[in-house]
């Protein structure tokens, strides 16, 4: 009698756990049953998603997609940025193809700690210096963090709901196990009182089975990837490109502030990313920081006086030894022009101001610039681009004129 009472209680508890298991699966009522710690999350750096959430409310932004086009020396420098309550907890550099000894300089510096405890807005406004000896890696990291923070600002990081998935195979295993135990209990209950101990053992086994298998069946969907399907070129990326294009305007007044070496390199990289006819890249860039040279250019070129005020000027040149020979020889002009536009857009994107001041095809100007910069005959200066931090904030001109557009065939518009 006593034994059968205990048996009933245990069966009741078993049922309770079964119902509980089903409730969890259906309603997602309980959170974080099987919590995985932060280290597990970090190991999942290979994830292709942009944002995922750890069980403790930490949100992790991966820069693989959003900053995949930002390169250090050997390729992109993927990061994971851990955030909680809209503040950066830490920035972690994932595996990359930078030279290890070179990248060690980044790890040994405090670059990755520069953004700790900042909000996305603060991180975006923070000026972070690069690292000498690892300039390109550092620049890529700084830009990648900025991309991630732009992403964080654009998608106010809402808490993801920790939900649960259900493993049906385990669940059916659970049912089968319970059925076997119940049959065994029924069998042994007929053998009473000899097999009473065996009944207790089976009942406990049954109960343990329910608990363990239920726990294993329910897997929290932690670290789930949000925006998994998001393509690399998101609407936001597009608008960043378009925003830069439309925000660019010629800047002719500069603050007395030096342009960092990293930014100079970024300008040059952007310039050299331009398309060129048959990929000849028939160009050369003269970076001028010496006041004396800037003054000389500013005094000589009638429409480039501002070079005297600028901390930096880049002279975009055509290199005729690299140009196409024959009929396409003048393509270098378009190639160097495309590079110049890239440079101007990059300057805008980096918070700098710049202006194209023309040299080629005005022969006297070409000769004068060649003389000042000691250029050989085959290096033709296309322009001088003074660059600096803007001391003016002119509105971009609205140049949109639909009448400049003709569809399919020319139509005279009067
Ligand atoms: C081929 C070329 C030559 C230019 N030469 C000069 C120049 O010598 N001095 C100058 O201040 N701006 C020069 N500019 C800048 C233009 O004046 C400027 O791009 C134009 O007024 C449109 O303004 P935005 O750049 O603000 O859109 C030149 C631009 C181009 C494309």
Structure description:
This protein is an alpha+beta fold and 414 residues long. 43% of the residues lie in helices and 14% in strands. The protein has a five-stranded antiparallel beta sheet. Strands 8, 9, 10, 11 and 12 form a five-stranded antiparallel beta sheet that branches. A two-stranded antiparallel ribbon has the order 5-6. α1 packs parallel to α8, α10 packs antiparallel against α12 and α11 runs antiparallel to α13. The longest helix has 26 residues. It is elongated and about 115 Å long. About 11% of the residues have low confidence. Bound molecules: flavin mononucleotide. Flavin mononucleotide binds next to β11.
Please supply descriptive tags for the structure shown above.
414 residues; alpha+beta; five-stranded antiparallel sheet; 13 helices; elongated; binds flavin mononucleotide
Ligand inventory: flavin mononucleotide
Helix content: 40-55%
Instruction: Please provide the ordered H/E string of secondary-structure elements.
Output: HHEEHEEHHHEHHEEHHEHEHEEHE
Look at the structure and give the mean pLDDT: 82
Spans where pLDDT lies below 50 across 5 or more residues: 26-48, 158-163, 221-235
Biggest pleated sheet: 5 strands, antiparallel
Task: Work out the number of β strands.
Answer: 12
Rg of Cα set: 33 Å
Protein structure class: alpha+beta
Q: Supply the number of helical segments.
A: 13
How many angstroms does the end-to-end distance come to?
A: 107 Å
Strand order of the largest sheet: 4-3-2-1-7
> Roughly what fraction of the amino acids lie in strands?
5-15%
- Shape descriptor reads elongated
């Amino acid at each position: 009698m006593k034994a059968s009472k205990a048996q009933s209680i245990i069966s009741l508890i078993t049922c309770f756990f079964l119902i509980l298991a089903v409730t969890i699966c259906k309603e997602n009522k309980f959170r974080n049953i099987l919590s995985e710690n932060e280290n597990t999350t970090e190991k999942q750096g290979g994830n292709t998603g942009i944002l995922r959430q750890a069980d403790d409310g930490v949100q992790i932004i991966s820069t693989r997609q959003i900053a995949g086009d930002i390169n250090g020396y050997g390729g992109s420098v993927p990061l994971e940025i851990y955030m909680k309550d809209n503040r950066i907890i830490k920035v972690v550099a994932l595996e990359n193809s930078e030279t290890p000894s070179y990248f060690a300089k980044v790890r040994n510096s405090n670059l990755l700690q520069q953004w700790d405890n900042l909000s996305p807005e603060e991180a975006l406004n923070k000026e972070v210096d690069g690292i000498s000896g690892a300039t390109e890696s550092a620049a890529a990291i700084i830009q990648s963090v900025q991309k991630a923070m732009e992403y964080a600002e654009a998608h106010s990081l809402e808490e993801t709901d920790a939900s649960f998935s259900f493993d049906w195979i385990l669940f059916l295993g659970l049912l089968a196990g319970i059925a076997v135990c119940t049959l065994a209990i029924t069998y042994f209950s007929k053998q009473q009182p000899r097999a009473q101990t065996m009944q207790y053992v089976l009942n406990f086994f049954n109960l343990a089975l329910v608990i363990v298998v239920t726990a294993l069946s329910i897997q929290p969907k932690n670290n789930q990837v949000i925006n998994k399907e998001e393509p690399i070129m998101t609407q936001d990326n597009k608008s960043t490109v378009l925003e830069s294009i439309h925000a660019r305007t010629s800047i002719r007044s500069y603050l007395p502030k030096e342009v960092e070496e990293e930014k100079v390199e970024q300008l040059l990289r952007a310039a050299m990313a331009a398309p060129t006819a048959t990929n000849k890249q028939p160009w050369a860039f003269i970076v001028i920081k010496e006041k004396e040279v800037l003054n000389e250019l500013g005094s000589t070129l009638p429409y480039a006086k501002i070079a005297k005020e600028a901390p930096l000027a880049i002279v975009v040149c055509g290199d005729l030894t690299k140009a196409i020979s024959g009929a396409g020889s003048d393509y270098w002009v378009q190639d160097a022009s495309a590079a110049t536009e890239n440079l101007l857009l990059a300057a805008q994107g980096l918070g700098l101001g710049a202006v194209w001041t023309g040299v080629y095809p005005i022969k006297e100007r070409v000769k004068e610039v060649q003389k000042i910069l000691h250029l050989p005959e085959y290096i033709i200066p296309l322009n001088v681009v003074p660059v600096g931090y803007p001391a003016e904030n002119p509105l971009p001109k609205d140049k949109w004129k639909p009448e400049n557009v003709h569809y399919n065939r020319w139509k005279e518009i009067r």
